Amino acid sequence: MEDNLMKAERNKMNRSDRAEELFRQGYNCSQSVFAAFADETGMTVEEAAKIASPFGAGFGKLREVCGAVTGMTMLAAYVCGYSDPADAQGKIKLYSLVQKMCKEFEKEQGTIICRELLGLEKGADLGEPAVRTEEYYKSRPCVGACRTAAAIAEKYLLDI
User: Mapped to the 3 state alphabet, what secondary structure does the chain carry?
Assistant: First the structure.
């Protein structure tokens, strides 16, 4: 019975809160956003996290497209993706949705590029992942990026 109550409480939590909770548990930004919707995809959090794992820190810590944006677009693919290479309308629909979502993220966060969000030069910070401390969470825009990406995904994808 308690497990059902905990699940009910989690279902009341919005996706931004869930993405932040996952990020604070140690998941990367892509995992946090994608796994915040695990129940919608029929995956477990662990399955969603595994699939999204290489995309954190701007694609394998290359600091390119923000992992939160990647998680958000992975959700768009899950909901609206196409599998037939001849499906031109499916491609147009998906790319248009991704562009719209990315523009909204960029409007709120200033960029979709990880290193720009972090104020880094290209090639900087390619070493070991940082230790997660309260100072880490305060000094980085990652929680906000995860929250923004999850909110955008919730806005555009849950009603499709």
Answer: CHHHHHHHHHHHCCHHHHHHHHHHCCCCHHHHHHHCCHHHHCCCHHHHHHHHHHHHHHHCCCCCECHHHHHHHHHHHHHHCCCCCCCHHHHHHHHHHHHHHHHHHHHHHCCCEHHHHHCCCCCCCCCCCCCCCHHHHHHCCHHHHHHHHHHHHHHHHCCC
> How many beta carbons lie within 10 A of that of residue 84, not counting itself?
8
Confidence band, pLDDT 50/70/90 cuts, at residue 160: low
**Phi, psi for residue 81 in degrees, rounded to 5:** -65, 165
Whole-structure pTM value: 0.89
The model's pLDDT over 96-136, given as tens digits with 9 standing for 90+, comes to 999 999 999 999 999 999 999 999 888 777 677 888 888 88
